[in-house]
């Protein structure tokens, strides 16, 4: 009977936590939809005068996609925080510490990603692709940007950057349970896996796949170098430590 009551209590607590996360996500969605035009101006590249929108329903569904992406991105952080608060009383001290550090690292990673890295990537990509509309002076062609296409590419870029952190965590977990010799031996397979993951989570173009696959390979090589330095450091520590004789050895008996 006590176990049943405890199970009911935990289910109620989980329902409360998930309800808080859903209400927070809905609040973010309605807030972003209320200020949808100002939100679009945040993502607009500098120096752009206008966007072209075709179709009566295109702009409406574009607003919905933008608000959904924005609210679900922040709602995911709220959900992870609520799950941590739900699981925290049943965790050991070291498990709670590891989970808390992972949660804080996730928040810091995505905050730096969307505050510093994401605007830089958007600016570089916009300057790269907008340069093509200025190189047709001999033919006198004019290219105008479409709002739906621009926000669709931002959504794909957001998905790729969002899934980059779980890929790095999975790579770290694989490193813990494997040996360094295996990583060196199957390095080529790791490169293929990195670009396969990039092809799965990005649009079918070389630039997007390179933006995801290349950082995974660089992180892979950094992990190998760091692992080699760490193993050498441990060997140096073991060499410098004095060897203590056993207290029941023949030397002590004599």
UniProtKB/TrEMBL annotation:
Entry keyword annotation includes Calcium: no
Annotated GO MF terms: proton motive force dependent protein transmembrane transporter activity
Any one GO CC term of the record: TAT protein transport complex
Swiss-Prot/TrEMBL keywords: Membrane, Mitochondrion, Transmembrane, Transmembrane helix
Keyword Mitochondrion among UniProt keywords: yes
Entry's localization field: Membrane
Membrane topology annotation: Multi-pass membrane protein
Matching Pfam families: TatC
Regions that span the bilayer: 20-43, 63-87, 99-122, 160-177, 189-206, 212-230
A biological process term (GO) from this entry: intracellular protein transmembrane transport
Main subcellular location: membrane
Family named by the database record: Belongs to the TatC family.
The protein's name in its UniProt record: SecY-independent transporter protein
Species the sequence originates in: Thalassiophyllum clathrus
Gene: tatC
């Amino acid at each position: 009977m006590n176990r049943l009551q405890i199970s009911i209590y935990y289910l109620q607590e989980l329902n409360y936590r998930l309800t808080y996360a859903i209400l927070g996500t809905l609040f973010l969605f309605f807030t972003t939809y209320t200020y949808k035009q100002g939100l679009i101006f945040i993502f607009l590249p500098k120096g752009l005068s206008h966007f072209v929108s075709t179709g009566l329903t295109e702009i409406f569904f574009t607003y919905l996609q933008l608000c959904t992406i924005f609210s679900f991105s922040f709602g995911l952080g709220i959900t992870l925080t609520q799950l941590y608060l739900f699981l925290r009383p049943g965790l050991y001290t070291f498990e709670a510490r590891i989970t808390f550090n992972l949660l804080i690292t996730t928040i810091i990673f995505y905050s730096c990603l969307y505050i510093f890295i994401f605007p830089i990537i958007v600016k570089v990509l916009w300057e790269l692709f907008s340069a093509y509309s200025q190189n047709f002076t001999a033919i006198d062609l004019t290219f105008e940007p479409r709002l739906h296409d621009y926000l669709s590419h931002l959504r794909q870029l957001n998905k790729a950057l969002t899934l980059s952190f779980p890929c790095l965590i999975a790579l770290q977990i694989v490193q813990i349970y494997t040996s360094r010799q295996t990583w060196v031996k199957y390095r080529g397979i790791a490169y293929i896996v990195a670009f396969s993951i990039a092809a799965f989570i990005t649009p079918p173009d070389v630039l997007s796949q390179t933006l995801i696959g290349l950082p995974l390979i660089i992180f892979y090589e950094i992990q190998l170098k760091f692992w080699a330095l760490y193993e050498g450091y441990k060997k140096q520590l073991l060499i410098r430590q004095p060897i203590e004789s056993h207290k029941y050895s023949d030397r002590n008996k004599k």
